[in-house]
């Protein structure tokens, strides 16, 4: 995205961060522990919410087009390794991670089922995902509007979709929602889910 692109993105996201996302991040990201993979770290906004005492290793997978300015975050946890790739083809062995984090990622993943399958593969026994995503609105009118506007928005926003049902996709991929972690505010959802055995 580059430094100027990062600043523009952060400016666009500021009201969402202030109203919803900050609280969502604070409520679940401290649960990350062991060997952690963050998929699509973007501008590195999540790093300050991690509890470094719980994390043995933090890896990041990012698209090859990024310049990885996320390593410049001051006062935040730094990744131990930054890898280029996509969530649909993760360059890690089976069962390697204890936690996988993704926030505002699956709206733009081309093959969400494949991406979630890869996350399932690289998680070890009892592994957990922590997620924040924006999804299709709940009300009938808003859902219809989102479906109609999605194609135009997708082209404008470089691949973001506003009509995804990511919670359903997570459950179909074989994850079980952890009680009392799930919440929804408007079009944003957050939660933790465990790999079913």
Report on this model:
- This protein has one domain (2-195): Rossmann fold.
- The protein has four helices and eight strands; from the N terminus they run H-E-E-E-E-H-E-H-H-E-E-E.
- The chain has helices spanning 2-28, 112-122, 140-156, 166-172, and strands spanning 34-39, 55-62, 81-84, 97-103, 123-134, 175-177, 183-185, 188-195.
- Strand 7 and strand 8 (188-195) form a beta hairpin.
- It is globular and about 45 Å long.
**Which series of helices and strands comes N to C?**
HEEEEHEHHEEE
CATH homologous superfamily heading: Vaccinia Virus protein VP39
The unreliable regions are: 1-9
Q: What's the CATH topology label? A: Rossmann fold
Q: Report the CATH architecture.
A: 3-Layer(aba) Sandwich
Question: What CATH first level would be assigned?
Answer: Alpha Beta
How far apart the termini lie comes to 38 Å
Strands, total number: 8
Query: What is the SS-derived class?
Result: alpha/beta
Residues in helices, as a percent range: 25-40%
| Mean pLDDT value | 83
How is the biggest beta sheet arranged? 8 strands, mixed
What's the gist of this structure?
With 197 residues, the protein is an alpha/beta fold.
Write the layout of secondary structure elements.
Elements: H1 2-28, E1 34-39, E2 55-62, E3 81-84, E4 97-103, H2 112-122, E5 123-134, H3 140-156, H4 166-172, E6 175-177, E7 183-185, E8 188-195
Parallel strand pairs: 1-2, 1-4, 2-3, 4-5
Antiparallel strand pairs: 5-8, 6-8, 7-8
């Amino acid at each position: 995205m580059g430094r100027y692109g990062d600043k523009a993105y952060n400016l666009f996201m500021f009201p969402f961060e202030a109203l919803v996302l900050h609280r969502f991040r604070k409520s679940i990201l401290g649960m990350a522990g062991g060997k952690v993979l963050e998929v699509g770290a973007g501008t590195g906004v999540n790093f300050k919410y991690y509890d470094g005492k719980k994390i043995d290793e933090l890896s990041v997978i990012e698209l090859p087009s990024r310049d990885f300015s996320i390593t410049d975050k001051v006062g935040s946890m730094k990744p131990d390794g930054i890898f280029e790739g996509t969530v649909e083809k993760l360059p890690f062995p089976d069962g390697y991670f204890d936690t996988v984090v993704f926030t505002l990622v699956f709206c733009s993943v081309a093959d969400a089922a494949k991406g979630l399958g890869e996350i399932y593969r690289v998680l070890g026994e009892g592994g957990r995902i922590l997620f924040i995503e924006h999804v299709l609105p709940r009300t009938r009118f808003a859902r219809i509007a989102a479906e109609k506007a999605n194609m135009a928005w997708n082209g404008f926003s470089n691949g973001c979709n506003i009509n995804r049902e990511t919670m359903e996709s997570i459950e179909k991929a074989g994850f079980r929602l952890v009680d009392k972690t799930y919440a929804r505010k408007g079009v944003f959802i957050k939660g933790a889910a465990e790999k079913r055995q």
